[in-house]
């Protein structure tokens, strides 16, 4: 009934590999990459598996890269003045986090924990730096995609800020777009 | 009664069996472990040098391979291109200037070494007599005998080792390119596989430290080898201007001993100066050779130009560590160990420093963040 776990593992890995590029192409950051560039990206990312309730990183850790959720669920939280955890976000497959640390050695500003058993893909600074030397063109495209998503976020953020400012000056009529 | 004795007998039998099996298996495990380690030792005995050389070659060729790979060429193919270019260059060089007359050089050296050493013995005995006149208490220290014994051993070693080392060089010529090919092609995959074994909690740290260490290491090894090659070339050109014999061999010796800081260059120039003294005598040529060794090669080229450019300050070792590394390397691997002991000590030093620096920044940020975090 049960196939040999050894062979199962091998075949599962093979299947993982076949779908990894597909999964990457579904992530908005990498949606504009060609098949070859996705293959290249596949070689740079590290697949890390976390158990349920395992810490991915805590606030203050030195960060060296970002994670993209392939499966599972990740909770982002910060710690308030009383030492209690405050949940910031729950992230689902396809979301990414920790991208701030990709650009420079910085402490993590919030903690991340896998709430269920999850498989994450880590994209780390040292690998990107090395890849820029060896394959500048695809790496530039990967970084460009990351940049696009970050710029979108920044844009959203400034819009929300404007919204808040408008709300603060005229609290009676909330400004809607 | 009989029941209890029978029980006891069974107990004794079981005890006996258990004890004997325990002792036997203990001996078996011990002996198999020792034979296993000795097997491992004999199996890996000849591999140290080819693997070391292959690693150095891989480190040297890595930038060239990356350069070709940058243009969209597959890595394996890029390595083949480099190998092809290299062998073409060597063949072209051999065709242009002809194969070096190694055999003749070895024969001449075999005849000349005793002459040079006997000269050195005479010279040193003279020095010793002079010293004995001033310091009578060293009267019964016979330096000449020591040196004579040493020279006889050296000549014997050269006579015995030459055919054997020719075989070894032949095997090196096959093994080193093979190993370095795989190191060049798969080192990244091997290291990624090893790093991916680290637990999640330490993964980022290990990855970062590995990146730093490998950057430092590749620069250090490349820098040292390029430094040795340039020093060898400078000495060769400098010596070729004079009438001294064996300029290529002396240049190789100077280049290789230059890998050992502080002490290496002194030992590297001893054979050259001895040969100059014996063959040319003290004259303008001798002073020029001394000048090439000390002033041009060491002070100007090495200390003023090469070391500031090639060698980062990180890899500086305290002289005490240098001496310890030379002695320990010599105990482990003889002359080869003396030469590579210091670079290996520097490599360990680099690894420790990088880890320590990483941890320091780690702690610094941690403190900074927690104080900020509490204020926020």
Automatic annotation (TrEMBL), chain A:
Keywords: Ion channel, Ion transport, Ligand-gated ion channel, Membrane, Transmembrane, Transmembrane helix, Transport
InterPro entries registered for this protein in UniProt: CNG_cation_channel, cNMP-bd_CS, cNMP-bd_dom, cNMP-bd_dom_sf, RmlC-like_jellyroll
One GO term describing the cellular component: membrane
CDD domains hit by this protein: CAP_ED
Location relative to the cell: Membrane
Pfam families: cNMP_binding
Keyword Plastid: no
GO molecular function: intracellularly cyclic nucleotide-activated monoatomic cation channel activity; protein-containing complex binding
Residues of the Cyclic nucleotide-binding domain: 29-125
PANTHER family registered for this protein in UniProt: CYCLIC NUCLEOTIDE-GATED CATION CHANNEL SUBUNIT A
Protein name: Cyclic nucleotide-binding domain-containing protein
Lineage: Bacteria, Pseudomonadati, Thermodesulfobacteriota, Desulfuromonadia, Geobacterales
UniProtKB/TrEMBL annotation, chain B:
Alphabetical UniProt keywords: Cell membrane, Membrane, Transmembrane, Transmembrane helix, Transport
TM helices/strands, residue ranges: 12-33, 45-65, 77-97, 166-184, 225-247, 259-280, 287-311, 323-352
GO process terms (BP): transmembrane transport
Organism superkingdom: Bacteria
UniProt entry tagged with the keyword Manganese: no
Pfam families from the UniProt entry: AI-2E_transport (PF01594)
A cellular component annotation (GO) from this entry: plasma membrane
Regions annotated as coiled coil: none
Membrane topology category: Multi-pass membrane protein
Protein name: AI-2E family transporter
Similarity field: Belongs to the autoinducer-2 exporter (AI-2E) (TC 2.A.86) family.
Record PANTHER family: PERMEASE PERM-RELATED, TRANSMEMBRANE PROTEIN
Subcellular location field: Cell membrane
